[in-house]
Amino acid sequence: MEPVIKVEGRAYPWGAKNIDTDIIIPAHWLKTTTREGLGRGAFETVRAQPGNIFDDPRYAGAPVLVAGDNFGCGSSREHAAWALADLGIKAVIAPSFSDIFSGNAFKNGIVPVVLPQEAIDRLVEVATTDEITVDLETMTVTTPFQDRFPFELDAFRRACLMQGLDEIGMTLAKDTAISKYESGVAAARPWIAGRGGHEGTAVEGAGRT
Residue 117 burial by CB count (10 A; 0-12/13-18/19+): exposed, middle or buried? Predict the structure, then answer.
């Protein structure tokens, strides 16, 4: 996972509320075994409508999505986060998120930023013409018009995002400690490591009649 320290650029000024994971990525896209290409199915039903913002060339490749309350509700499918990431979205700003979606977003390098509705309304307005910046160092969302909206993020998740550590990365970061532990176990209890160590040991009472 790539480190996420600052996300800046155009943003989709959507603001829609109660967007569930079926809207983010319809169920018929869940048959795939790879994350690549899921961006084509992202917001498929929305993109079927003429003049939708996801196919508007002004926002092509936008790394930020400004959404409404309760974003990512519905089923727990991780494909929703995969589809957003494949679409190029690195941060979603909304008044609230589904807990499961928020967790899936974090695991896939997407920053879920919670801001009050007043800030969302302002960002939707700004995003129609200008860029937005999400800064994890200062924990703020800013605009070229001196708007500055502070947000909170779990300290552990923030550190993982800034270091580019997903669950596999966190495990690999402890490789030295894991290897040291396994070596100690192998030396103290060789039979666990498949090295024998109990050969010839008789079980008390075995063979008695």
Answer: middle
